[in-house]
Structure formats: C-alpha cells, structure tokens
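Run folding on both entries below.
>entry_1
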Amino acid sequence: MDLNLSVFQEPRGVMRILQLMFAISAFATTVNYTGFIDFMCDVPYKFSFEYPFNLLLNQELNLGAKNNCTPRVKISSDFSSDAKFFVASGVIAMLYCLFIMIVYTKFDNKYRTDNRLPVFDFFMTVFIAVLWVSSSASWANALANMKYISHDDYIQWDNLGICTRCPISVSSFSSLNVSVILGFLNFFLWATDLWFLYKETTWFQVGQISTSGEI
C-alpha cells in the first residue's frame, strides 16, 4: 500500500493537521500549568496547585510571633472533573486525528469507494465537536470559579482573633485562559470540517446527481 500524501493538500487533510496541533496545545497548556497562592506572613507559606486542580488547603499560618497569631487558612474546592473532561476531549481528538490520517494516507482508495468510511468520519467529527464545546464550556466555568475561590475575600480564615490576615499573592491564570480559548477554537475547527467531510459522503453526491438530473 502506497502512502497518499496528496490528501494533505485537500481541505480534509489540512483540517486534520490543524486539529491535531490545536488539540495538543489545548490540553498541554492545562496539564503543564502550576499555580500558587503565596501567603506573605512572618513565616511565608506558598500553596501550590496543578492539574487536575483539586484545591484542598488546611494550614496553620504564623502571622507574627509578637502577637502570637497562628490562624488556620482553609480552601476546599475540587475542579478535577471539569479539568479531566477537557483534557480527555483533547486526547480523544488527538488520537482520532492520528487514526484518521493513517486511513487517509494508507487506505485512501477504500475511503473513496466504501461509502461507510466517510459517513463514519463525519459522525465521529460531530461527536468530537460536541465534546469540545461541552468540555470547553465546563472548563471555562471551572476556571472562573477557581479565580474566585483563590481571591483573598473568599479564602476562609479560622481562629484569626484580633490579628489581621496577612496579604496574599496569586499566580497568573493567563495560560489557563489560553487553554479555554483553544478549546473553543478546536470546536470551531471540528465544526467547520463537517462541510468538507459532508462533501465526501453519498448524501452530498446523491444530491449533486439529483440536481444535475433536474437540470
């Protein structure tokens, strides 16, 4: 079986390359992120969090030896389900891109002659497009809540007494913002690809024949 690389000069081949690149970028920016909340007390304490973003903190902090202030700071929020859903969508998209690109290059003749393969490709693309839009929406909501719970006004302090809570510094969420944008961009790429794949199916070809016959 000869490799047919000319498919990557066609829209369906080009779209698969773009989808593969953007899928990897989307989940990579999520799993490689490490954030922190820095409590700038007399004895500094840094709370770090990363994928899958199950933020659990129950720590006693020293606000100052002269005041004998040792309150306990608490955070209890779990965003792991949304983060895993988003990353799983990216991994599924990546694996399907690799699989279908092998089909395109090694079995192109069968793809063009077997009506079932284009239909399967079309419906799988619909499925993954739905995965992207739903997981991106869920992850965008989780990220908004993550920013909220890491704000100084939300963090719970126990046993603070007359002491003043120490200032905090929170890491930037810019790379996670990018991951959300990439998620919706992936949905756009997969939804747009449906038109090119539809033209490969018998539905489009029968419609073209019917239109030609009427003329």
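>entry_2
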Amino acid sequence: MLQEIEEQPRALAETIREERAKVERLGKFLRERDIDLIIMVARGSSDNAALFGRYLMEIRTGIPVSLSAPSVYTLYGARLKLDRALVIGVSQSGEGEDINRVLARARECGAFTLGITNEPTSTMTRIVDETLLMHGGREQSVAATKTYTGQMMLFYMLAEALTDGATPKLDFEKIPEYVARALALRPIVEELVARYVFMENCVVVGRGLSYANAYELALKLMETCYVVAERFSSADFFHGPLAIVERHFPIILFAPPGVTLPGVMSLLERLRELRADTLAITSERAVAELCTRSIRMPEELNEFLAPIPYIVPGQLFAALLAEAKGLDPDKPRSLSKVTRTL
C-alpha cells in the first residue's frame, strides 16, 4: 500500500500523457451529441471517485450528474430512458459484475457508455462504447490508492473536455507535482499516528469537492485499521451527528481554501467548545490554530486542485496507523481485491 501511494506522481503524469488525446476527441463527440444527463456507476473506492466526479462535472459543465443505484437494473430490471445520457462505469478491475451489467443495460436503453478502469483487457472494456485507462500499472494492494487518484484525474480531464473554450482551465497538469510535495509530509504523518494507535472510532468531515475524500479516508480507516469511521459533510454534521461528540472524540477534517472553508471553520469552533480531538488537513493557518493537530498543505493549492493532493496524507495516515496498530494494511481481513456483487 505504501509503495503504491508513493507511485502516484508518476502514475498521474502518465495518465495525463497517455489519455489526453483520447479524452479531447471524446469531449468533442459528446458535446456534439448534446448529452444532458450523466450517470455514474461504481462501488467502493471507485464510487468515492465517482462522487468527486459528480461534484466536478456538475460545477464545470452544468450537466446534471446522478450516482446510479445498480440494484435498479440488476435486481428490479428497470428500463430507463437514456437516449441523451452518458453512463460512466468506474472500476479498478473492470470485473465488477453489477457495474458491467448496468453498463450493458444502459447501452441497450440508448446511452453512450464509458468505462474508466485500470485493466485494458477487462470485461468492462468489451461492454462499453469507449474506455479511459489509468496508467499506474497493476494495483496489488487491496486498499485502493493510486487507482482512486487515477480515476479522479480522468474526471478532471473529462470535465475540461466537456466545457466550452470560454471556461477557465483547471491546470490539472500541476497535480502530480503537488502530490509529490504531499508525499514529503510522511515524517509528519508518522509522528502523528502514534497519538491515534488506540483509536477505535472517529468521524471524517469534508464538503463540496472534498466530500468524496471524507468517504475515501473513512473507507481506508475501516478496511486497513478496523476503525469504525463515519463520514459527513460539515453541513450535515450539525444536523444530529454532532450529538456523538464528547471530550477527546477524534474528528479528521479536510479543510482546503475556498467556498466550503467558512462552514468548516464554524464546525471547528463548535468542536473546540466540545473539546473534541481534531486533526485537519489544510493550508489555512486559521484552521490549524483551531485544531488539536494539523497537516499543513501548500498554500498555493486552490480548492479545485486540492482534492487529489489532500487525500495523500490521508492515505499515508491509514497505512501507517495500521502498521502502528500491528496490522498489515496489505492483508485486511475478510477482503479481496475484486469484489463481485449483483
């Protein structure tokens, strides 16, 4: 897991280089097709990447994006009207049976189908109209890291390809370098995990473009550290879940700059009153001053480029915490790399 976390700058740069021309052609084709709905279908970490894609695509393109409920297709056999829809399947292995069945059914219903996967010879690639590939090499760790960020990168590229020329560019080409800088924070994370060795439960908070990272870090903590980790947006956390917080209760927050920051600050002020144990991944001095502990990110990172670099300290935290607990993050109990469900 740690090796694959370290591989991410190279993997992301390779994905940009290898898929750029294909994504640009695909974007032109989809604009001409006049797509007015995008549906994502995924499970696990890929579902978290799709959640990020939903926020980014809606913000950048104005096209409504829905996260599919696979059982609507696989168990209830519903036939949807998808003539002007783009249906995107997201799967590290490309072998998820429910994901592939949804893609096949969506294509029958008139949708243009796109697969995002790490495996060029997988079943998914034979089902969809077009495929976008991650280029990080085979992922061995059960806990996805480089494929999660690789999927996010492809959503950056696709979102930009679907926008008109008047929309300011995202400069996603800078992200691999920011990820390399985030990896340099490993000594700080190693020092931090010693304080959380006996953590059994926690909450992870993020909002907007960082909401998916809250889901992803919580999943990593559950599958590698066996920590019961709930995830919320900073807004939703005020609506009931705040009642679980007591003195020293651990809460991890993604707090990048941008429009979601005031809400995070308000939550942190309340958590400070409750004497919670707060750990923020942030570039903001004001956030760090409100928290028990913080991991400081580069100040020049804007909210649109932050999601991939910000998850890297979270990945390191989960892998290193597992080791500190005497667990093997590469062999989580009861799990396998490919999960087959319907």
